Amino acid sequence: MANNYPIVQQTRRTFFLRTLAIAGILSLAQAGNIQAGTLQGKIIYHGPLPDKEEIVVKKDSETCGKTREVEPIILAQNKGVQDVIVSVEMEGQDSPAKDSGQPKTIVNKGCRFLTRVGTATVKQTLTIQNLDPILHNTHVRTSTRAFINVVLLPEAMGVKKALRKPGPMTVKCNKHPFMKGFIHVFSHPYHTVTDSTGHFMILNLPEGTHTLSFWHETLGTLQQTVTLPQKDGTILTIEFPAP
Amino acid sequence: MGLRQAFLWRFNHPRQAKACGLMMSLMASLIFSHQSAFAVESGGHNSSERGKRLYEESCLFCHGEVGQGDGPDAFSLGAYSAPRPRAFTGGEYKFRSTPSGEPPTDYDLFETMTNGIPGFMPSFRGLPEEDRWAIVTYIKQFSTIFQEIAGTPVVLPPGPLPATTASIIRGHELYALLDCAKCHGPEAMMPGGLYEQGELRDRRELDILPRDLHNLPSFKNGHQPRDIAKSILTGLDGTPMASYQEALSPHPEDIWHLVNYLMSLSPQ
Amino acid sequence: MVKKIFALLCVVLGNDMFIPTSAHAIPAFARKYDVNCTVCHVRVPRLNQFGQRFLENGYQLPGTEDGGIIGKLKYGDLTLDQVSNYFAALFQTTAVQHVSLKRKVAGTDEKTEIGKTKVFRFFTAGTITKNVGFFVEAQSTGGEIALEHSYISLNNLGPDNWAHLRIGKIDPSAFSSYSTHRQHFGPISGNVVSNGPFMAPTINRIALTPAAFSSKFFGLFNRSGAPTLPPAPSLYNSTSENGIDIHGRPFGDWFLYQVGVLNGAGERAGDSNNSKDWYVMTRFDFAKSSYFSANLSGFAYFGNHNAKVATRADVSRSRYGFLGNFRYKMVDLYGAFVVDRVSDLPDALEPLFDATATGITLEANVLATDRLMLGLRYDHMDAGGIRTQRTSSSTLALMAKYYLRSNMAIFARDDINLRKAHGGASPVRNFRNGFTAGIFMAF
């Protein structure tokens, strides 16, 4: 896949035009008209739901609340699963995307990480902020080592650090052990997280057959191949089996 | 190449000497004065065979054949609680002069080996300097992190400052402000709440005890003012002890007040 | 004179048969290097691999010759701290002991005894200068003070770990896979009444020691006529014998050799038999990662007129053994199979004397938590010696040992006789069950 790079570039060059086109089509016609190169999907789950865990907050409860409810799976009415990381498998991608766009931000607010589950691209800058009136420490770890473990003063504007390597990372606050988050870093820009209804969309995906990976903190990992362009009006629906 | 030789080598190159001298005096005032002379000297010790032999004689029993921290004696050292021997393969080190997430400098590794870790690792001062440098080179090859990032020492503000009463009182304030009590206990009477709740874990998910701040000689990363400042500013990666560099950035000299307070806790 | 000696022997043997205890740990080294005991010990007193290499290197860290740097005493500014880096003490006592017997014997009622055995050891050890180590130990057991093993070691003779030399009162088995002296299960003393020189003693209750390392023969005496009791550690597994010993790892860490010469007559001083015993041991170390270690050793010990029989004739005791140790994470397994032979027997005695004895000792230690260690030891002695006296034994010991600190433990153990206890004329197996609880401290 070493020659993927030019294709990506080409796609990007036409990105602006395509976006215009989408906007035009969408404004004119129905939502069913999907531009080739855009992948749309939905993740659902019908299995049993694990019990919600209620943690008693022992310190800083003025800010963090007296208790904290942890939902192992956040499910919408329509059985859509929130916070599933969706990514395209691109092995051997040796020229990571350069633009990376906006810095990726982790905000400590109300003793929660916003965003709690996120994705990022290599070379993007990770910014860690604290909007709470109390101290937090944000401990981001790769599978083998600390990426950063830093204490933030109340209302700290933040620490910045460039993301260097692809791979999954966990985010914790050692001062408030109930705070947990996840960030997956990829060497390409084709990744996203499902919204509260379980929907996701990846833009500008080169046409052809791709393997998609789905990761959820409780439900685990799934893979599925998909061929682009999708037929008009279709939404790829993936169902997670019960763990 | 021993330390002294490394130092001389620099001045054997006349053109560099002047610039080096200037740079060094500049750096010495900024970063750990003892570090500046050596931190730059990484990778110059090309004695991999020797390093391997020395490692296998002296280090393997705890750190394991391939540096995974799983030597035959590693388990009984910390059977069910931290610390266990460092896994060099992870590339994560507690005792650094570099920011959180960065690998240590060669001199950090050399220093840990030379001073040992109170309670857990004897000092290997008995090995000649060049042997210790050969081991530094050898353990670095267990992790690719040393090729990916070159650790740059954190800049310490000018100090240490004299341990006046005012300084110690300010340090005591900072201890409360910076939430040190969450782990080290109110008035540094450990263990604090989080340990009792079983919430403090190391990278292996083993229970880890916060340092007893009333026992200065037991500080693992050294107990000189600069060592303590280093631990607070850089954090101990792989443990819940985070870097306070950002938190202390509004008033960098505060670090010395905090150090003075911590040092005042132990009997002289 | 004879009567006087006899009276003395009665006191010594009748009260607590003298068996040197096991635990060796040198907190002085922990102080010197500023580390916990667990750096060198799996749990005190048992050494881990690092501790074994430290011992082999003459009390210098493995791979180093640090005696000259860390070990050197500076006479100018000698502080208490520095002195404490060279001296250590060890205290072990059984707080409670209850032994149940099959046959009641005067003096060994089935009563619970409090504070029965106290062992106090005082030793000084370390390095004088680079590659010169020393060990001197005084031991007090039940009022008797004796100089136990004490020696000088010259280390790193030749390049690459070729040879290390020890001279003095040494413990030969120190480098093997199963050191005689580092027992979690200390010896449980027996009850023996001496009947005079070269007379079979009355064994009311046999002492409990690792069967593999014990003497195993009934009807042997030392050169002054005192009985060599079957449970006493001896020969290669002697606790202290005057001798010279060389060991090294010349081909790398996987192979250790050891050769040595001892006086061998089991005497505290002197060498009345004017002949030497010698031994050779090899040890193979493999698997040194993934929390796993394993080693196997074999030894042969050749005795030379080192014992006497009742007819006062000299005999030679020899020993061959196979030892092993496997350790994985919290489990430590080790054991020994040892064969003893008596040769040069007088012709008249030969049909009455079983010249071969074997012993098996298997031990398992499990670290249940950081502080709690559970132990299990199985001993089987297929005894030799005078056929009418010899009685084999099999015992099982269970123990829980709780470490309050790494240098301090309380323990409770139970010893079970696996065979049917019987009385009779040679009531060596009078023992049924024994419960012991005590404390161990090293400081």
Provide a quick synopsis of the model.
Chain A is built from three helices and 18 strands.
Structural account:
The complex is a heterotrimer of chains A (243), B (268) and C (443). Chain A is mainly β and 243 residues long. In chain A, 12% of the residues lie in helices and 41% in strands. Chain A has 2 domains: 1-56 and 71-90 and 190-243, Immunoglobulins (Immunoglobulin-like, Sandwich); 94-161 and 171-183, Cupredoxins -  blue copper proteins (Immunoglobulin-like, Sandwich). Chain A contains 3 helices and 18 strands. In chain A, a hairpin with a 4-residue loop joins strand 9 (136-141) and strand 10. Chain A starts with a helix and ends with a strand. Chain B folds into 2 domains: 3-148, Cytochrome Bc1 Complex, Chain D, domain 2 (Orthogonal Bundle); 165-265, Orthogonal Bundle (Cytochrome Bc1 Complex, Chain D, domain 2). Helix content of chain B is 45%, strand content 0%. Chain B has helices at 3-11, 14-30, 33-39, 48-58, 60-63, 74-77, 106-115, 129-140, 145-148, 165-177, 181-184, 193-196, 225-234, 254-265. In chain B, helix 2 runs antiparallel to helix 3. Chain B starts with a helix and ends with a helix. Chain C is mainly β and 443 residues long. Chain C has a single domain, classed as Beta Barrel (Porin). Helix content of chain C is 8%, strand content 47%. Chain C is built from 4 helices and 27 strands. In chain C, the strands form 4 sheets. A 16-stranded antiparallel barrel of chain C has the order 3-5-6-8-9-14-15-16-17-19-20-22-23-25-26-27. Chain C has a 3-stranded mixed sheet with strand order 12-24-21, with no helix packed on it. The chains are: A mainly beta (243), B mainly alpha (268), C mainly beta (443). At the B-C interface, helix 4, helix 5 and helix 6 of B face helix 3 of C.
